[in-house]
Amino acid sequence: MQILRLHWKQLLLPGQGGKLTLGQKIHYLLGSVQWFGDPLMTAFTLLLLATATATAFHHQLPIRTMTGAILGLPIAFLAGGLLRAVWAMKLRTRCTWRDAIAGLQVWFALSWVVTLACVRGLLRFQTAFLRTPKQKEGEATALQVVKSAQVELLLAAAGFAAAIAMLLRAPSFSTAALSLLLMFQAAVYANAPWASAAAEGIHLTPLRRAYRRSAQSTGAWPAYGNSLLAVPAAVAAVGLALWLITSLATVAITPPEALEIRNGPARRRPVSEKSLSGAGWSSAGRTLRPAGR
């Protein structure tokens, strides 16, 4: 993120790369952009949570929703991507299928950590790079697991609850497909407590003890660093909450009765005698008769 934020002109604009070749620019750019997959997945999870909450209360968000057979495309892409990732890991590392699936779980467990790293890398200056700490020998307690993965646990619980509520309140093919996608996203974040318990229970080798005492594991955070991200995050959370409350409180389609009450009955335009005379009619008192008869 630091490389992309500081040197995006050299990577994107022609003639600004200095001594870098086109191949080197592409490799640096793709190596930085691929980390945005986890922030996009987090945004997709929040969108699914909002959709499930609105659907459970029989409301509709002010966005266009996917319906019908098109909902099968994300599920097909998801299954293909999982198979491709596990197969590539097994082929590259020559491990067993069980180890490949476990490696994929660890990959999923770091989704929220990578999301925070991307956001902080783009917004903060002088941010230290920290290794994932391995600090606890022996068995981890449940409190330590929850404390180290509390955000992921909250996202997973909210995802499962919203998916089940949407499926029970509005059962259909579309809600079933959305529930499946939301449950998968919740399962991604549910891997974090498992990985946290596994990391807490490892045996610290001498090399890992040296890593634990190094600056890249402890970190020297700036005194002002914690407040840089707190204010934008709080403003974004409040705005998202207000938007959800407004969308849930607003009826998706205004009934015709409300429109008639609001606008009043249609008024007829009075017909003048001049227009009748021009059409070949004349009036005598309150009776209309054709002219010339």
Verbal overview:
This protein has a domain at 36-218 and 225-243. Helix content is 67%, strand content 3%. The chain contains 14 helices and 2 strands, in the order ααααααααααααααββ. Strands 1-2 form a two-stranded antiparallel ribbon. The protein is globular, with a radius of gyration of 31 Å. The N and C termini lie far apart (92 Å).
Strand order of the largest sheet: 1-2
How much helicity do the residues have? 55-70%
Rg, nearest Å? 31 Å
Report the major sheet: 2 strands, antiparallel
Number of strands: 2
Tell me, what's the shape? globular
Q: Give the termini distance in whole angstroms.
A: 92 Å
Mean pLDDT: 72
Written as H for each helix and E for each strand, in order along the chain, the element string is HHHHHHHHHHHHHHEE
Please state roughly what percent of the residues sit in beta strands, choosing from under 5%, 5-15%, 15-25%, 25-35%, 35-45% or over 45%: under 5%
- What structural class do the secondary elements suggest? mainly alpha
Task: Provide a count of the helices.
Answer: 14
Poorly predicted tracts of residues: 221-227, 258-262, 281-289
